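Q: Could you write out the predicted structure for this multi-component system? I'm mainly interested in how the pieces pack against one another.
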Amino acid sequence: MEHLSFTLPSKTAALPKGHTAIAGVVGSGNLEVLLEPGPDPATAHFAIQTSAKGYGEVWQAVLADFAEEYPIGGLQFSINDNAATPAVVALRLRQVLESAQPGTL
Amino acid sequence: MHGADGIRESVTATTRILLMSWNLRQTNRQARLQRGAAHCESPKVVAAAEATSLLESVIEPGDKVCLEGNNQKQADFLAEALSKADPAKLHDLHIVQSCLTLPEHLDLFEQGIARRVDFSFSGPQAARLSRLIEAGKIEVGGIHTYLELYARYFLDLTPRVALVAAEAADASGNLYTGPNTEDTPAIVEATAFNQGIVIAQVNRIEERLPRVDIPGDWVDFVIPSPRPFYIEPLFTRDPAKITETHVLMAMLTIKGIYAEYGVTALNHGIGFNTAAIELLLPTYGESLGLKGKICRHFALNPHPTLIPAIEKGWVEAVQTFGGELGMEAYVAARPDIFPVGRDGTLRSNRAFAQAAGHYACDAFIGASLQIDPQGNSSTAIIGRVAGFGGAPNMGCDARGRRHTSPAWVKAGQEAQSCVNAMPRGRKLVVQMAETFGEKLRPTFVERLDAWKFAESGAFELPPVMVYGDDVTHIVTEEGIANLLLCRTPEEREQAIRGVAGYTPVGLARNREKVKELRERGVIRRPQDLGIRLSDATRDWLAAQDMRDLVRWSGGLYNPPTQFRNW
C-alpha cells in the first residue's frame, strides 16, 4: 500500500456544517471516498491509501483539476483505492460531492 | 512475389509451356483424388479414423492449405488430424487462414508441418504467435483484414486444399453450414473453381439437409467427426460487467455522434463499450427521441445485447458475419430482422457482411489497445501479435462509395478544408477507448509498439489496425475529439491529447490550444453535451444481467454455460 496526501487550494464549499458523505466501494478497480469537514476553508485535504504504487503525479493532476473545477475548500477527503483508473476516481469524487449537496453540481 | 511460392509458380508456368499442357492443376487434382479414394467408405465419406491418412495422401508438401479457423467456428477435428500428420510426408505447408485460434493451428509450425502463414486474426494465440515469430519458427506472409484475405483466395493465395467445418452433409457431399456459415462459401468457391480439393468435417450425415449451403459438386471428401465442431461465443457480453465509464462513453457516443450525424447504418466492433451503446438505445436513446432516426441497419453478429433494441422496434435489419452460440432460436424467431433461410435458420456470410461494413455503413465504431497522437491505432503490442480481423476494412473511409446518406455527406462537409475542392462524403470512423486500460496501462502512447515490429524486421511496415488519417472521432471518458474539424496536424494532435486524460500523452497537452479547440467544438466534454458524470449510471442499461436478456427475448435466448450465472 502507498500512502499519499495532498492539500490543495480551492474556493470554499457551501456545505452544511459537519456534513459527511461516502461514495464507492473498495472493489478491484474501484475506490471508496469519505467526505468530512476539514480544518481550513481555503484548502481541501486528501488522504489516500492506494494499492497501485507510483501514481503520485497522476493523483496530483486529477485532484488539482477537481479542486479547480469545484468549490471544495474546507473539506477533507479520505480515499481507499484499489487501482481504480483516473476516470473512475474523477467519477467518485464528483459523486461524493453530489451526494453531499444534491442537485447543485 | 514471395520467395519459395514465387519460384514454385514460375517453375509450374515453365513446365506448362514446355509440355504444352494447360491443365496441370486438373491433372494433379485427379491424382490426389485417386490417392484419397483409397480412404473412402463411400464415394465421398471418409471415416474419422482415416482422417490423418486422408490428409497425408491428398495434401502435398509446399501446398497452400486453408484450415477453417473462422472467428467463431473451427474445423477443430481436421486441425487435430493435420497436426498428427508425419512431417516427413507433409512439410513446408503455406497456411492461409482467417483466424489462428486453436493451439493445433500453431502446433503445425512447431512440428515442421507448416512453414508460412497468411492470416487475419490471432487473438487467442497472440502471445504464442509472437514467441514463434521471434524464434523464427514461423514466416508471416502478411496480416490481412478478412475481406482482403478472401479476395486473395481468388487471386494469388488460392488454397490448394481447403479443410472446412459444416453442420451436416448428405451422401452427395452437399453441406448445410447453418447459422455459422461464416467464411465457408468464399473459401470453398475459391478452392473448388481453381482445381483444389475441399474436405469437410461434419457433425452428422443426413439423408435430407434442411437447406444446401454448399453444393456437393464443390466438395470432395466428407468426414463425420466424433464431436460437433468447436464454436466460441465471442460476441456475448454480460451486462453485469458493464461499468459506469462504459455507460458514460455510450451516452457521449449516442448523443454526440449518432444523433449529431444521423447515423442509421453502422457496425459495432466487439467489446463492452459497444455492448453498452446497444443496451442504452431503448432507454437513453429513447429519452432523446432518437428511435427511428438512428441505428436502423447493423452489419453485426447476433449480439445478445442488441435484443432489447430489436424488441423495442429500433432495428430494421442485421446482416451477420457469423452466428452467436445461444442466439439460434431467437434469430430464427425474428426472420424480418436477420438473414433467415427458407429452412428457418440463420445463414451468416462474413464476406458479404464485411462488404456491407465497408460500403454500406455510415459509421464504424471500435475499441483499441494503443493510440498515438496522430490517431494511429493498433493491437500489436510487445509480446502479442493479435492481428486485426475486420477492423481495417470497416474502420476506414470507403473511397469507392458513391451513394449518399445524411451522415456521410455531413462528415464529408466537416472534413472539407478548401472551399473549391470537389465535395465528397466521408465515413465516420470512431475509436472508442478508456484512457487507461487493464492494469492501468495507458491506451494513449507517444509511439506505438507497432514500430518495434517493423524495426525488428518481423514486419515490413508497422502493423497498424486503423490509420490516423481514417479516424474521424475519438471517444474517451474525457469527451469526444472531432478530427474532421482539425485543419492542421498540430491541431489534430492536440485534439487527441485533449481527450487522452491523465495518461502521459494527455498530461503533455498544450492547455491553451486544448481550451481553444474546446471553444470551437473540436473537443466536447460531457458537460458540453449536457451530460453530467453523475447521470452515467448502470440504471440506463435496458438489461442489467444475462437473466434480463433472456427475459427480453421471451425465453428464446439460450446463454452458453459460461454465461449462466444466476
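A: Regarding packing and overall arrangement: The two ends of chain B are 55 Å apart (CA to CA).
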